[in-house]
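Work Package 4 report. The design task specified in the project plan requires that, given a folded chain encoded as structure tokens, an amino acid be chosen for each position. We show below one input record used in the internal validation round.
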């Protein structure tokens, strides 16, 4: 156990994040997704507290990663010693790909909430247009701030807090919280009643697509640590972190769970 822990620590915060997500996917994520589904239902019934929760979660989706990136930027480059890497040297790390992925995630979450809250009726024009335009602008700002993390600062930040170890720890905490948020959305699809498989063949047919989708949704919160470690081991660790959810998707939970 001690040797395993040493390997995880040597692998950096990215591998520790994978372990953290793996444990949460086993113990907590299904309950967290069910809680969020309940919040949406209460908001649909007019519960103001639930509506505030939805607003806070929407803000967190767009703010957690940029805030974490800002707090960790100087520390990442100061400690990397030239090992951080250029995030734009491949298609997957291109900011346009990241922006498109964030827009898709935001649109999917927005559509899910609107469908649950408004049902067959349409939201007010101002709410609909404002959420789309505001979401697009926030996603663009979000992407710029995230990718600013990868550009080396010309000088140490003037703020003593941004140079402190507490800033780095808090940045990691926000990045971890962002990963939890993405995993909660990913688990929602199981919670709302993913159909059970009819046989082994159907189960095996689901695996490649679900593994790809799991890695795709895990990519945005994991990108900060992938900049330094892009080897096959990192991707395998990411896949293992998502195995509990992938297994639930492959088997299915049946309607009306």
């Amino acid at each position: 156990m001690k040797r395993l822990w040493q390997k995880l620590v040597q692998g950096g915060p990215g591998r520790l994040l994978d372990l953290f997500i793996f444990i949460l996917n086993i113990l907590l994520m299904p309950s967290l997704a069910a809680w969020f589904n309940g919040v949406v239902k209460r908001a649909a019934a007019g519960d103001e507290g639930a509506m505030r929760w939805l607003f806070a979660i929407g803000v967190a989706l767009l703010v957690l990663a940029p805030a974490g990136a800002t707090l960790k930027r100087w520390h990442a480059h100061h400690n990397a010693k030239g090992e951080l890497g250029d995030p734009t040297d491949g298609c997957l790390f291109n900011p346009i790909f990241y922006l498109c992925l964030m827009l898709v995630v935001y649109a999917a979450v927005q559509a899910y909430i609107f469908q649950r809250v408004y049902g067959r009726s349409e939201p007010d024009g101002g709410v609909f247009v404002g959420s789309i335009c505001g979401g697009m602008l926030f996603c663009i700002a979000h992407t710029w701030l995230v990718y600013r993390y990868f550009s080396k600062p010309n000088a140490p930040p003037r703020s003593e807090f941004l140079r402190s170890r507490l800033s780095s720890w808090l940045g990691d905490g926000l990045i971890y919280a962002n990963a939890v948020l993405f995993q909660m959305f990913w688990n929602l699809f199981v919670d709302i009643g993913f159909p059970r498989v009819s046989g082994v063949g159907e189960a095996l047919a689901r695996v490649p697509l679900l593994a790809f989708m799991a890695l795709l949704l895990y990519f945005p919160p994991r990108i900060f640590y992938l900049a330094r470690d892009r080897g096959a081991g990192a991707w395998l660790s990411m896949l293992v972190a998502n195995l509990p959810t992938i297994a639930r998707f492959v088997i299915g939970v049946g309607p009306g769970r």
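Residues 12-251 form one domain. Validation will be extended to a larger panel in the next phase.
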